[in-house]
Amino acid sequence: MTEEDVDRPTVRPSTAGEELREHEVRTALLDLLAEVGVVTATEAAARLGYSSGLCSFHLRQLARHGHIEEAPHRGGRARPWRLCRPAAASDPSTEDFGALARGLEDESWQHWLDRREQAPAEWRRDEAFSAVAYLTPEEMSRMAAMIQAALAPYQDRDHRPLARPEGARPVALITRLFPLLPHPADDADDADEG
């Protein structure tokens, strides 16, 4: 029996709630790696409040899918992990990390759409919306700050399970503010009109 056999959960998640928790653990691990750079399963467990076996399992899953890699170390049983980065990237806020985050968001959204009917009845709806507003760069920044301020009262629940009210579940809150640029075809139409 190997260390991986000992750490591997014996039952794969099968309910929507367990799959949400699986995403929550992986997201928390990616956020932690973005914050501290290198972490072992034991360190992640201490910081996030999960078991070291659960963290070890999800770290290996993230590595298997190419999101993280083993960091150089000097032997021993501890396996430190870090985010995968191109050689030129020096911090996780680069385009590659943003693409990873967007990919996880899109994957989670599709997973929700595919399995919504398996969720308890009171959780079967979502509150998705989108809008286009004409803003200045300053207004766009203020809008982002207002959204972050609205979410602030709920942020500590991620790392403090006792702060969560009964019945609370992880909910993806995704906001993307970006200017809409003209498409090349729009540019050609404008040139024809001029």
From TrEMBL:
CDD domains: HTH_ARSR
Disordered: annotated span: 1-20
Gene3D superfamilies registered for this protein in UniProt: Winged helix-like DNA-binding domain superfamily/Winged helix DNA-binding domain
Descriptive protein name: Winged helix-turn-helix domain-containing protein
